[in-house]
Write a structure and sequence with these properties.
Layout lengths: L1 H16 L60 H45 L3 H21 L10 H27 L2 H8 L2 H11 L7 H19 L6 H24 L7 H23 L2 H15 L2 H24 L4 H23 L5 H21 L1
């Protein structure tokens, strides 16, 4: 090896002595790789498509460097802080919008229940009362679409087919709840209706084969126990009113199941969805209302109510019809903004507000043991909404 190096030096010296103008040192670069042989045996020519082992970017004084997401001490750069500051007002506005939805939903529901009970006390015809509620909502939405206050939904035949079982269940639940309100106190109807989660779990378990964690099943115990205690201790208990609330619970459970299964992939807003649901339910309910009560009973009952109450009765009927649609419309609109868990909690709080308001306004006599049953049932509903999620 030393001999080879010495030979190389001697050859270089000889070349310089031969008359080269500038002496050059002959050396091999470290890491030199010989050229790869081409197919013909010769060296492979240089290709522009060859990818370099590295790329050196010349320094430029005007070149900018993107700031890191955070500095070494954890402080955010100016851009990130600005984005956070912009997002904060948007989140605050969203929370305020949800708060307005909830407050409006509860207020409209309380007003509806009060006027609905006043109408049923003077005009005990729940089939016509239910029909007028759906008719008012349908008229409001048709007028909104015609005047372009609200954008009309784009629907097809498949949409209405999928909506049909939902509308049937909605019609049954709506009429059954109105029948219950006509026979018993508003507070008692809503105490029994707070047992809807128990029906939801039982139907989903035995008819759909769904399984739930143990906390969900345990949360049904206070719901069932509270409803039973409130029913046993109700001073003005009526079996028709009790069964109406129970049938309403079962019907609304099937309404939710049909809605989840049949309306997947249907791009309709919550407001328009409920509008279409009201219109289809009205068409379903109308012939049954005529068959169950009929114009003769309605005319006689209307005259008696106007003679007893006066012109205010007409206002009561209009108010209960309009507010029924509005509170349901707001509740469906809120579903576009909040999670199902938040909606369940809001629905529980809504029942509390309706029960308390109706007891105060109608001076409903309540025994302590009855109030305890209502509190247990409502608490169980809240626990259920937490365990379900």
């Amino acid at each position: 090896m030393l001999a080879t190096a010495a030979s190389s030096v001697r050859l270089s010296t000889a070349a310089a002595a031969a008359g080269a103008a500038t002496p050059k040192l002959a050396f091999k670069p470290i890491g030199y790789l010989p050229p790869l042989a081409a197919a013909g045996g010769g060296p492979r020519p240089l290709s522009l498509s060859a990818r370099p082992l590295y790329r050196q970017v010349p320094f430029s004084a005007t070149r900018t460097v993107a700031p890191p997401s955070a500095t070494a001490d954890g402080a955010r750069p100016v851009e990130a802080a600005s984005a956070t500051a912009t997002a904060a007002p948007a989140e605050t506005a969203r929370r305020a919008k949800i708060g307005v939805y909830f407050a409006t939903w509860w207020a409209l529901n309380v007003i509806f229940n009060i006027y609905n009970k006043k109408v049923l006390n003077a005009f005990p015809y729940p089939w016509l009362t239910s029909t007028l509620s759906l008719a008012a909502g349908s008229a409001i939405m048709l007028a909104s679409w015609a005047t372009r206050i609200a954008e009309a939904p784009s629907t097809d035949l498949d949409f209405w087919k999928a909506l049909s079982p939902v509308a049937i269940a909605h019609t049954i639940g709506h009429v059954a709840a109105t029948v219950s309100m006509a026979k018993v106190a508003v507070s008692f109807t809503h105490i029994i209706k707070s047992g809807e989660p128990a029906f939801s779990v039982l139907v989903s378990r035995f008819f759909l084969g769904e399984h739930f964690p143990a906390p969900v099943y345990f949360s049904l115990l206070p719901i069932i126990g509270g409803c039973a205690l409130a029913a046993v201790t109700e001073l003005n208990f009526n079996m028709t009113g009790f069964m109406g609330a129970m049938i309403s619970n079962l019907a609304f459970v099937f309404r939710n199941i049909f809605s989840k299964k049949g309306m997947k992939g249907k791009s309709v807003s919550g407001m328009n969805y409920y509008a279409c649901l009201s219109m289809l339910s009205l068409l379903i309910l109308l012939p049954f209302a005529f068959a169950m009560e009929g114009p003769k009973l309605w005319a006689a009952g209307w005259q008696n109510a106007v003679a007893e109450i006066g012109p205010n009765f007409v206002w009561w009927v209009a108010a209960q019809s309009v507010f029924y649609h509005l509170y349901n419309q707001v509740s469906y609109m809120s579903l576009d903004e909040i999670s199902p868990l938040t909606f369940s909690v809001g629905n529980t709080m809504k029942r509390i507000s309706v029960i308390v308001a109706s007891i105060i306004i109608f001076h409903t006599p309540v025994q302590p043991i009855n109030a305890l049953g209502a509190a247990i049932a409502i608490l169980g509903t809240f626990i259920y909404s937490q365990a379900k999620q």
